[in-house]
Amino acid sequence: MRRRISLPLKLFLIVFAFVLSCIILISQLSYRYVQKEIRTTDVYYTNQILDKIDQYFTVNFSSFQTILFSVESSVKANIDNTDVIKKQLRVLYELNSNYVSNIYLIKSDLSILGGSTPTRIFDEPLAEREPLFAAADKDRRTTFVSDPYKSKYSGWTVTMVRYLNGAPFPIAIAVDLDLNAIEETLFKINRQEQMNLALITASGKIIAGFSENKGPLNIQDHTFSIGETSAEQILDTAESSLQLHTREGTPVSLLKKPTEKFNWTILSINDESRLKAALSRLETYYIELLAAGFLLSLFVSFVIAKYIRTPLYALKTKMKRVEQGLLTTTISINRNDEFGDLSRAFDRMLQQIVELIRGAELHHELERKLEIQVLQSQINPHFLYNTLGSISNVIRLGQIEKVDVVIESLISILEYGIADASEKVSLRQELQNVSDYIAIQNIRYNRNFQLIEDIEAGLIDFPVFRMLLQPLVENSIFHGYNGGGLEGPITIHAYRERGRVIIEVVDQGEGIPSDKLQHVLISEPSDVEVKRKRIGLNNIHDRIRLHYGEQFGLQIISIPKEITRVQALFPAGLFKGDASL
């Protein structure tokens, strides 16, 4: 025979699994939340750095414009004195040599007057100056910024050139930017902030940056690509943030920002190394949290299982003795809770049963029946007393085999009922509780209230209030079927309809008269004495409306003598596979 697992052990395992799962879930959600926050902060911080770099280039652009205008004013004032112009070009160059490679004038024959030492000596015409002079001559009112190129005297540079209007002969003013200084600035930021920054032109050429990086980029001839995505494709996208993969499959995040003054774009490529470094520091904390959660789960599970096991075993022992015919057995459970109430009620019931049996020997059958009716009327106000009365009846009638059924159903209902009423449970758990409840009522009334379940696929684990269905089923038995006077099927449907989940209990009993139907869901005044204390339909109705809004709650459709439908309406969006919602 297969050995049955005891209820305390089941409870221990369930509580252990539940507490540990909650801790793991909370840990995972916390970890993901922290990861998301770190990622968001990292993106925000990177954008701040990009803004600062753009401001840096904006200031430099203004400085370069100032240099051009200074040269323009100086040349115009000394147009006939070449020596003075050369001296002033040299002075301006030396003042700005930290970020300028050269300051010079380009003549129409492509020869120059230079400010740097090499160009003061070597001023011969060079073909590389032809596009610069042509661009300045084409639009004489604006400043032209070239693409990066290899200059004979300035090296890898970008030139800003402006036509000198008002001169007696064609001439342009040019400033070569020191890209090495710009690149060193980017490298410094990369090292300090653990970033990977670069400055690229509209055609996808690298102006500065990336060259010290040994990461996922393929750099050749001042162009680059990330995996299969070229620089031109990156620039063509409208998004400022991209998620790409390198050729090795490494995921990288790319942020881009166009500069305000230059026709350039600042790129930041993050392979999440900073994020991983930050998260790795949290791993130890989460491992410790999980270990503490494991120990806490064991402790809580043990305490709860022990709290239930002692009185439960005492009750089980007492019921076993009763099953064996020892009606005078007494096992005291001195607890001020449901188990204590159950034990005392059971003792009183046994005492009354013994008295009834003894009285049956002295009095006639009618007096014995009257005493049983008195006993039943005394315990009728509470479901617990009703159930214990049912146990009494089946013992008295010799139907010992039904005792286990009633006790097991009662234990299941008690376990279910002592939990936190605010905790939501799955529809599956509610159906099991109703099944236990109907099993007791069938034995109590000696009727066959057939429970029919029609649950739409996917809704068996829909989260509902604890004790949602039992009051609805109880309403069907006590009002639809006249408190056991009639018998019939009780059908429970669950289905989706127009953005709602509808759970309904249907009986084919007496129905509710139309004049009473509109008052069923109205809460009773607090001063009205209710003879039979139980959860009313208005209680369920108010709880649903309180949690989910006025458009939800209970609806009752009743045709007297034919059918009654009590529908509980919930929002369909409540169910996302998480019964804790």
From TrEMBL:
<dbReference type="InterPro" id="IPR010559">
    <property type="entry name" value="Sig_transdc_His_kin_internal"/>
</dbReference>
<keyword id="KW-0812">Transmembrane</keyword>
<keyword id="KW-0067">ATP-binding</keyword>
<dbReference type="Pfam" id="PF02518">
    <property type="entry name" value="HATPase_c"/>
</dbReference>
<keyword id="KW-0902">Two-component regulatory system</keyword>
<keyword id="KW-0472">Membrane</keyword>
<feature type="transmembrane region" description="Helical">
    <location>
        <begin position="12"/>
        <end position="31"/>
    </location>
</feature>
<keyword id="KW-0597">Phosphoprotein</keyword>
<keyword id="KW-1003">Cell membrane</keyword>
<protein>
    <submittedName>
        <fullName>Histidine kinase</fullName>
    </submittedName>
</protein>
<dbReference type="InterPro" id="IPR003660">
    <property type="entry name" value="HAMP_dom"/>
</dbReference>
<keyword id="KW-0808">Transferase</keyword>
<keyword id="KW-0547">Nucleotide-binding</keyword>
<dbReference type="GO" id="GO:0016301">
    <property type="term" value="F:kinase activity"/>
</dbReference>
<keyword id="KW-1133">Transmembrane helix</keyword>
<dbReference type="Pfam" id="PF06580">
    <property type="entry name" value="His_kinase"/>
</dbReference>
<dbReference type="InterPro" id="IPR003594">
    <property type="entry name" value="HATPase_dom"/>
</dbReference>
<keyword id="KW-0418">Kinase</keyword>
<dbReference type="InterPro" id="IPR050640">
    <property type="entry name" value="Bact_2-comp_sensor_kinase"/>
</dbReference>
<feature type="domain" description="HAMP">
    <location>
        <begin position="306"/>
        <end position="358"/>
    </location>
</feature>
<dbReference type="InterPro" id="IPR036890">
    <property type="entry name" value="HATPase_C_sf"/>
</dbReference>
<dbReference type="Pfam" id="PF00672">
    <property type="entry name" value="HAMP"/>
</dbReference>
